[in-house]
Amino acid sequence: MKTLCQACTPRQSVFDDNTRDDVLEITDLIQNRIDPNEFFNENFATEGMKLLVETAFKRFHGKNASGLIKLTQSMGGGKTHNMIALALLAKYPQVRNKVLGDMFKESYIGEVKVVGFTGRESDAEFGIWGAIAEQLGKKEQFKDYYSPLQAPGQTAWINLLKGEPLLILLDEIPPYLENAKSKAIGDSNLSVVTITALANLFNALGKKELSNVCVVISDLKATYESGSEQLQSTFKELEGEVSRSALNIEPVGTNSDDVYNILRKRLFEKIPSNEDIIEIANAFKDKVSEAKQMGYTNMSPEQIFIGIKDSYPFHPSLKDLYARFKENQGFQQTRGLIRLMRVIVSQIYTNGKADKKYIINPYDMDLNDTNMLGQIKTIKPSLANAISHDIQANGKGIAEAIDNEMDDSNMSDLSKIILVSSLADVPNAILGLTESEIIGYLTEPEKDITRIKKSLQEYTLKAWYINSTDNGKLYFQNTKNMIAELNTLVESYDNDAAKKELRVFLEDKFKPSNNTCYQNVKVFPAIDEIKLEQDKVTLVLFEPNAKGMD
Hints:
With 550 residues, the protein is of the alpha/beta class. Helices cover 47% and strands 9% of the residues. It contains 26 helices and 13 strands. Strand 10 and strand 11 form a beta hairpin. Helix 8 crosses helix 10 and helix 21 packs antiparallel against helix 22. 39% of the residues are buried. It holds the Pfam family DUF499.
């Protein structure tokens, strides 16, 4: 059975720190800074992307009623990425054939003109309409709308855009509109004028003259869904205009295997044959079956087999665990997951783990690496103390300290899988895993299942920030648990203070009640403090001999 190192070859870009955070924008497309062949070598065509392309090309042929497409997904969910993919396929017919095969073999459409605008270009001198006109080579046609800036009407848009098939991309519009509010135009402002201009554009798309023009816009609401109520209301009018006529497309399917396909294509240049993958899936199935027979997990061996076939080289648990925290405020969904898994892949191929492992697990992360630790803290900052005390901190974390003593990795593995299951930071989030789920996720070929269970039981008695839900799911929180409080209490007492507290406690517990056995009690007395009385029995409580009994 092939290990990861034998079966999969990562792309060189995985190990290049300079490309890890490389994010393409519409500006890169407009300025021809994107190599289409290189782009598609590392990018998977999701069903959402194919639907986007199919819908747009129907429009270019004049066969689609809707000329406005809205890409719906939260931040980092693939909206800009899919816009760029569509634009490259529109601009380069030869690439179109290579990527999509026979999908458009009957199409007579050659190169499609592409223009675009990103709201990050907040200083656009002549507004969105001026930028579009300039890219079309028709800047002068809109000269009457530049000084002062005013919204082109529906007819003006038709006259500007009619003719050959045309693709218009509008990305990151909310930050542009927010900034435009500060630019006064008469009694109004640039934000209001821009909203009017775009509303007129969207209405113009319904006219026959623009039946081959397609506009793709990113979801305004999704971009700022976590913003203030006042900020959201700013875009309500434009969002309403979009929603009236737009076709909604989700770039990355939340209930599909898109996430695995994207990661595979982006991070690896070679993966093994189906026969090799099935062999690995069967090995995991057999091990989970063994764990189930021992009563350690309720996980289905068949589901693990099917899951690994679909998700290889990633463990199928990745999809469920990622779904929990992908909605966290500020987390960039698909982009954020690619960034996270890129670091994990780089680590396991650099530190030698890929020579021994058969699959990439969500817990295969080295939190002593500042880059990795920084990414996890960004997802859920409140768990910083839990990580440093209970998991990994250059040899001082509870889990890694025990693993170092035992020459094992069970403690670290189970602590990290619990950590990943605890990263959700939204209302009513699912947190934690049951003991059955933890053991099921950690079970793999050549791993002693009994040691996993023993390690889990030991870990829950030592970790300070681990807690349990009512249904038995273990998760990390940002407040100390009872074990931590007891440790803190013990550490707050020196020997004298502890003896004083204990003396009071024992005097109360052993206080004579009916005087039948003894009448006096002495707790931890010095020998010369013991005064015997002829007609009374005295109970004397001494400290245990630290050296034991001779």
